[in-house]
Amino acid sequence: MSAEPAESPLEPSARRDASFSSVFSQALQGHPCSVVGLADEPQPLPVGEWTRDADDADHHLLSHCEGPTLDIGCGPGRLSARLAELGHVVLGIDVVHEAVRQTRDRGVSAIVRDVFQSLPGEGRWRSALLADGNVGIGGNPVALLRRVRELVDPRGRVVVELAPPGAGHTSAWAELHCGESRSRPFRWSVVGADAIGPIAHEAGLAVTGSHAFGGRWCAVLEEPS
């Protein structure tokens, strides 16, 4: 996950003074955390799904990555680590220092960086991975995919994990709540498997593959032929 805090219409809170990164770091260290604003009720942050080792469904997702791969919003690195095990050159990026530390602890290269900042190998990555809902980064998936398009080789691809069909496309202000800590608000989007086509098209990409696996969904985006 990666986003810049900003003012929002959410109700004022005396404890809403922590950065996204600091609250997410607490979650990665094992403290219960929830995300508020993306659904009618607070949703537990599924940190256990991110800190475990990659499973068979993850392997199916990663099978669509080709060659050197940039893992955007790598979190604690389970997917970066599996990509490295599969023989890929891989770089994880995340705005959260704790996430990058945990990725490096798995023996994988990772840096603290926002996807909209300058990155190593721009225009030369064969694949870019947006897993675990990271197509929502910044709350504007068209802008995000346009940026990712700059990062991959023109012959490359973007592998995007998506919400279930029927989820459509929504953007909202959200906060992370962890104990008494409240993050400053950030924009986030949810993109369903049924909504990625028009978004990809607006970003200058085409959906060249759609896949369902283990109750999860992804799409492969490439330059139009």
Largest sheet: 7 strands, mixed
Count helical runs: 7
Structural class: alpha/beta
SSE topology string: EHEEHHEHEHEEHEEEEHEE
CATH topology of the domain at 55-171 and 195-222: Rossmann fold
> Helical percent range?
10-25%
Give a verbal description of the structure.
This protein has 225 residues and is of the alpha/beta class. It has a domain at 55-171 and 195-222: 3-Layer(aba) Sandwich (Rossmann fold). The chain contains seven helices and 13 strands. It has helices at 20-28, 47-51, 56-62, 78-85, 97-105, 141-151, 196-202; strands at 16-18, 34-36, 43-44, 69-72, 90-94, 110-112, 125-130, 152-162, 169-178, 181-183, 186-191, 206-213, 216-222. The strands form two sheets. It has a seven-stranded mixed sheet with strand order 6-5-4-7-8-13-12, with helices on both faces. Strands 1, 2, 3, 9, 10 and 11 form a six-stranded mixed sheet that branches. The longest helix has 11 residues, at 141-151. The protein starts with 15 loop residues before the first strand and ends with a strand.
Task: Provide keyphrases for this structure.
225 residues, single chain, six-stranded mixed beta sheet, 7 helices, alpha/beta, Rossmann fold, 25% helix
